[in-house]
Task: inverse folding
């Protein structure tokens, strides 16, 4: 029998070598042109009290949209020190979106990626794309899988220190975006798509929270004598912030992203320093395995129980704290399954829409910070 090879795509996480002529259109091509590229159309569905709550959250939403524009511009020119192409950035974003399972993000990043030409078919290009895809998948799904050898593999694949910082910020941003979008989706009481066969990664092991040593970067931070004007400006703004005091010089390899990240943290400072915001951030850090973040956020009364495990803390917490822990845990573990039912404990505890939004933003922001601290230092 004559063997024939039909034209088709070999899907893994995204297409890598298909030609523009044979590439299939994304399922939702209009998702590439949506005006709000952070909430991806959810804000337009909000009415009444929820619309007012989102209006009050506009500074955070604007800062998030600015970060999106910075990380995913309409065009980009690579250089010797910044080798990540727009294709690299959007393919990474699509990988992370697929890991989170939030369909709006998958539609958007697939539609933006579709018109771009992928890398050439050389062995080096394939190896590089495989390494960054696998790293992005692991960091998005289970941050504790990332260790020093994983960073070394990125270096061997040709990523520079500025590349790795930008790459990490992209992964963290999309994880944050997915959880904020999932939270607003739940506040709207929209149905969620249940994906069968999805296994939720286990929480980080308890032993990772026993080491009391201070956080140390795995990459060489920016040196003062070589810092550019934009890097110094970002450092001046960000280093005084507690969340960035230890990581600012390392993150300054991408000064623009650091400045935008610092702006977002500054805007959300009031929400994240509330009792429910601190507890939600501690729950996210415990699940993701970031001891540096956990030690900063965990309330003294629940610190020991949370170290043992999130479920142990639920058993020993008050009704209000239990509601926050349950909500933050579900949003951290499975944003694609987060629904209105998971917000019900907060409603029963008397939380207003604004306080529920605080829990959502705090959980999402902490997940971004966890991934930076977990992957770039130890």
Result:
């Amino acid at each position: 029998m004559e063997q024939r090879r039909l034209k088709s795509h070999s899907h893994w996480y995204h297409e890598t070598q298909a030609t523009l002529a044979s590439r299939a259109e994304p399922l939702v091509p209009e998702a590439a042109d949506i005006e709000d590229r952070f909430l991806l159309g959810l804000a337009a569905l909000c009415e009444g009290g929820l619309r007012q709550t989102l209006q009050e959250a506009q500074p955070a939403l604007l800062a998030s949209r600015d970060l999106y524009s910075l990380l995913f511009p309409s065009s980009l020119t690579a250089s010797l020190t910044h080798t990540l192409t727009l294709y690299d950035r959007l393919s990474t974003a699509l990988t992370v979106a697929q890991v989170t399972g939030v369909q709006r993000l998958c539609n958007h990043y697939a539609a933006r990626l579709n018109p771009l030409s992928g890398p050439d078919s050389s062995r080096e290009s394939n190896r590089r794309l495989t390494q960054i895809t696998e790293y992005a998948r692991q960091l998005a799904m289970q941050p504790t899988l990332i260790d020093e050898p994983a960073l070394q593999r990125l270096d061997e694949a040709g990523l520079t220190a500025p590349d790795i910082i930008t790459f990490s910020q992209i992964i963290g941003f999309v994880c944050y975006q997915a959880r904020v979008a999932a939270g607003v989706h739940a506040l709207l009481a929209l149905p969620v798509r249940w994906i069968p066969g999805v296994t939720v990664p286990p929480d980080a092991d308890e032993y990772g929270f026993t080491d009391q040593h201070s956080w140390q970067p795995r990459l060489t931070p920016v040196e003062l004598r070589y810092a550019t004007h934009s890097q110094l400006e970002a450092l001046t703004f960000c280093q005084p912030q507690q969340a960035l005091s230890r990581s600012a010089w390392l993150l300054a390899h991408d000064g623009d992203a650091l400045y935008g990240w610092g702006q977002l943290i500054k805007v959300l400072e009031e929400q994240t320093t509330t009792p429910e915001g601190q507890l939600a951030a501690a729950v996210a850090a415990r699940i993701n395995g970031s001891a540096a973040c956990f030690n900063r956020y965990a309330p003294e009364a629940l610190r020991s129980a949370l170290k043992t495990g999130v479920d142990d803390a639920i058993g020993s917490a008050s009704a209000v704290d239990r509601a926050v822990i349950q909500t933050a845990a579900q949003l951290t573990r499975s944003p694609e399954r987060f629904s209105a039912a998971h917000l019900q404990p907060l409603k029963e505890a008397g939380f207003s829409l604004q306080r529920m939004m605080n829990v959502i933003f705090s959980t999402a922001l902490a997940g971004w910070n966890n991934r930076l601290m977990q992957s770039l230092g130890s």
Notes: The mean pLDDT is 90.
